[in-house]
Design goal:
890 residues, alpha/beta, Rossmann fold, 8-stranded mixed beta sheet, 6-stranded mixed beta sheet, rod-shaped
Length: 890
């Protein structure tokens, strides 16, 4: 591969040097002989193609005239400089398109059945002088340049068609507007303020340039290209383009990396001077980052650009592959001298081309073309010789020894696509549509005049019609061509059509392939004008068929956001990591965002992860442990209750009111079981019950402890002689204490339920990555009132028990209650700060643990010593032992 590339570069270099030598030689000859090296022609207009119309009815012959764009170096009348012109063979298809369209119309009996169209085709030479001269010659007597005089009626000019580039069209429009002749331009036409007022008879077969600018922006946005290069021809058109496109790009967040002006094609000495002046800036620009380059120019600019691209590697490193974007003005065409130059630099280019279809019969028509096919075709000889690199002038003795002769039977299919294409191009398609539009307008006019004659109106001879009279019919034309496309004009005189997005494939042998990869429809709804089929696009080989990236800097990956660089364009930025708690989910995010409430950022801040539902479950280890403890203590409590019931007739079981003992044990059992309401996913029922059941049951237990303590104290005080406390000793007082204390707590709970009851809720912010499913207490005040009331009962019980701890008692009841209340108060005093400092399921676990510990403390301190005597020391569980211990204490 390396050897092949080297050989190709060497051959290209030799070709380039030979071209430059040829141009310098021409320039030197002109200077030596004092010859003006401009384009000059003494004849009315050289390279004329003329076919007279057939007189079918009366004296009417309507002509349609096209201005063809061919670049030609011609000779003055007295000097011989270059015997053969150097032209663009590709533009010859426009000539053939006109001839084909006229032929189709003349053979169609439904259109102008009694009238035949004729046409003249003249050359503009890409210069204003020759364009004016050609246009004026159409208004003159044939073969005599006398504008505004008509000496015969067989050649009645009806319309002008042309040109392919904006400058030619504009120069033609100046003359055609004066004579009110309809002009249908099949190339671009620069939008000038007041165009319709200045040129009311101008019709554009190509939509406005502004549509292509908007399409370009949408194309850049589609591929996310924000850093591009701009190439514009160095003239007024290029200035106007840059004034329009630069703000438009900025408004759509696209920046330009560089702007290079392409020299405008002119005279030989100007070409050399401007080309080498621009080459340095061209090389510097293409060493920058932009992989996408948008070109604004017309066919002559393409020739200059090819020379600059070919010359650049000899001054610097080779220019790497780029994605070239161009508008419909551009066509990849070549002069015959350039056809051997490598054009693969433009492989994968994308252009907005004028919408086209293949007209039935056109391919067969051009295959019949031969050098002798028309006697007055002034273009075919040059086209044939330039395309096939041969000579048709053997009979005239002008053939050089080394020049191959043409047979006239060469096949057009063998011509490289740079010189000629067999398929109809967008501009040729527009030429055909222009001819169809004029023909149908004439047909409508003819029918209108025939109708007037039948109705006996004013007779208007059709042969005396003026070109301006076609305008009303042309303006309202709406027809379908043979390809099925509609041809009509809008209120601005622009054809209602769109553009094809074309992907160009260039090959080493000079052939090229157009691939339609999308469509630009200016009339489509906003935002849907551009359609792209990405799977059809072929990129330049340097991109390895991967979507090219054209940015000022690399993408900011997910997890990072853009930060503007000071002193740089807004398309250039640094990438900074997203702050804590935020994410960026896509590339090149302007700012990091927060995740939805039910999600949280990943560690790299590149995605939002769904939060895990968090609650104390029966299936997790902590839940299993707490459930096991609750069931274990419940089982122990039931065993204690059973033991007391079994030994209810013993002194220990009878002491201190059996009812209080059973009530206390049952309430402790319910306290242990109430913890099961705190485990599992919170629901409406569990949230309502858990705190209420816990508060009321625990209040019953504390009330029983308080009643036991009060009973012990009153019983001791009642044993004193003359004491008035004897009447208070009994079961009624104990029951009253339990009921009153319990009803107070129940009243608090009822008030809580009626005002702001607990309900299921979720906390999404306390723990990162978790959604805490919890019971919202509704009113924190009421919750702490319930806890506070239980605490006050515990404190009162502790105080009473502590004061009675030294009273004589066979079983040290007061001391055991004191210890139990000490444990209870210690647990719940430590509960409050611990509960406030924990989150989620651990907060619930703290409350469960506090309930279990405090309940177990009451069970153990009050009932363990008694169970020990009942089960293991029955000898101490007798009346004699009780009385003996009492007497010992006294």
């Amino acid at each position: 591969m390396e050897i092949c590339v080297g050989k190709r570069s060497f051959v290209n270099g030799i070709i380039l040097v030979l071209m430059l030598i040829l141009i310098l030689l021409c320039h030197s000859v002109c200077k030596t002989h004092s010859i003006n090296c401009s384009i000059y022609d003494p004849l009315p207009v050289p390279h004329e193609y003329y076919q007279p119309g057939d007189l079918v009815i009366g004296e009417i012959v309507s002509q349609v005239v096209i201005m063809s764009d061919k670049l030609t170096f011609t000779k003055p009348p007295t000097e011989t400089l270059i015997d053969e012109p150097v032209s663009l063979p590709k533009n010859y298809q426009h000539v053939l398109a006109l001839a084909f369209a006229v032929k189709e119309i003349n053979e169609n009996p439904n259109i102008l059945s009694n009238i035949s169209l004729g046409f003249r085709i003249l050359n503009s030479y890409y210069t204003a002088k020759m364009t004016y001269k050609a246009t004026l010659s159409l208004l003159s007597v044939q073969q005599t340049f006398v504008p505004n005089f008509k000496c015969h009626t067989q050649n009645n000019l009806i319309a002008l068609i042309g040109g392919c580039i904006s400058e030619v069209s504009a120069n033609m429009a100046i003359v055609s507007a004066i004579h009110k002749t309809p002009q249908l331009t099949y190339g671009s036409f620069l939008p000038v303020q007041g165009t319709k007022r200045l040129f009311p008879f101008l019709y554009q077969m190509v939509p406005s340039e502004s549509h292509q600018h908007k399409g370009l922006v949408q194309l850049l946005q589609h591929f996310k290209w924000t850093w591009i290069g701009l190439l514009a021809v160095d003239d007024d058109k290029g200035d106007r383009f840059l004034q329009t496109i630069v703000p438009l790009l900025s408004q759509n967040y696209v920046c330009y990396d560089f702007i290079v002006r392409i020299p405008k094609w002119g005279f030989v000495d100007e070409l050399l001077e401007l080309g080498f002046e621009s080459l340095k800036s061209f090389i510097i620009a293409f060493g920058r980052k932009a992989n996408v380059v948008f070109i604004y120019g017309e066919p002559p600019s393409f020739m200059i650009l090819r020379i600059m691209l070919l010359t650049a590697p000899y001054y610097s490193s080779p220019i790497q592959g780029r994605v070239w974007l161009v508008t419909s003005h551009w066509d990849f065409a070549s002069q015959s001298l350039q056809k051997q130059l490598d054009i693969q630099t433009f492989h994968g280019s994308m252009t907005f081309t004028v919408h086209s279809n293949q007209l039935v019969g056109f391919h067969d028509f051009i295959q019949m073309i031969r050098p002798s096919w028309a006697q007055r075709d002034g273009f075919i000889e040059d086209f044939w010789e330039q395309s096939f690199s041969c000579s048709l002038k053997m009979s005239k003795g002008q053939k050089e020894e080394k020049e191959e002769s043409c047979t006239g039977e060469e096949k057009l299919e063998s011509i490289p696509g740079l010189l000629f294409e067999m398929k109809m191009t967008g501009h040729s398609y527009s030429v055909c549509n222009a001819v169809y539009a004029v023909a149908h307008a004439l047909n409508a006019m003819y029918k209108s005049h025939s109708k007037h004659r039948r109705q006996g109106g004013d007779r208007l001879a059709f042969q005396n019609i003026e070109s301006w009279q076609v305008h009303p019919f042309l303006k309202d034309i709406a027809i379908n061509n043979s390809a099925g496309d509609t041809v009509r004009f809008d209120e601005n005189g622009e054809q209602v059509t769109g553009f094809d997005v074309t992907n160009w494939l260039m090959f080493a042998n000079g052939s090229l392939v157009r691939v339609k990869v999308g469509r630009l429809e200016p009339q489509a709804p906003l935002g849907k004008e551009l359609t792209i089929h990405d799977d059809r696009i072929v990129w330049h080989p340097s991109f390895n068929q991967v979507l090219p990236v054209s940015l000022c800097n690399d993408y900011c990956h997910p997890g990072y956001s853009k930060k503007k660089k000071e002193g740089e364009k807004f398309c250039c930025y640094d990438c900074v990591l997203c702050p804590e708690g935020t994410v960026s989910l896509q590339k090149d995010m302007d700012a990091c965002t927060k995740c939805p409430e039910d999600q949280y950022p990943s560690k790299d801040h590149s995605q939002c992860i769904p939060k895990v539902l968090c609650f104390l479950s029966y299936t997790e280890n902590l839940g299993i442990i707490l459930v096991t403890l609750a069931i274990f203590f419940s089982f122990i409590t039931m065993l204690v209750l059973r033991s007391f019931m079994k030994h209810r007739d013993t002194p220990i079981a009878k002491a201190n009111n059996q009812t209080l003992t059973y009530s206390l044990l049952i309430s402790l059992l319910l306290c242990f079981l109430s913890t099961l309401l705190f485990i599992g996913q919170p629901g409406e029922e569990t949230c309502l019950l858990r705190q209420m059941v816990f508060g009321i049951v625990f209040s019953v237990a504390l009330s029983c402890v308080l009643a036991k303590t009060v009973t012990v104290v009153l019983a001791f005080m009642a044993t004193k002689p003359g004491s008035g406390m004897r009447k208070w000793v009994g079961k009624r007082l104990a029951k009253s204490i339990v009921l009153i204390c319990t009803f107070i707590q129940a009243g608090i709970c009822i008030l809580w339920l009626s005002t702001s009851p607990p309900f299921p809720g979720s906390d999404m912010h306390s723990l990162n990555g978790e959604i805490i499913l919890e019971c919202n207490e509704g009113s924190a005040t009421m919750f702490y009132c319930v806890l506070g009331y239980m605490g006050s009962l515990a404190v009162i019980s502790f105080i009473v028990a502590f004061s009675a701890r030294k009273l004589p008692d066979s079983f040290n009841e007061a001391k055991f209650i004191t210890f139990s209340m000490l444990v209870f108060c210690s647990v719940w005093l430590s509960f409050v700060p611990t509960y406030m400092s924990t989150k989620g399921k651990y907060m619930v676990a703290v409350e469960i643990f506090s309930i279990l510990c405090s309940s177990a403390g009451l069970l153990g301190c009050i009932f363990f010593p008694k169970c020990y005597i009942i089960l293991f020391r029955p000898d101490l569980n007798s009346r004699e032992q009780i009385m003996a211990r009492k007497s010992e204490r006294m």
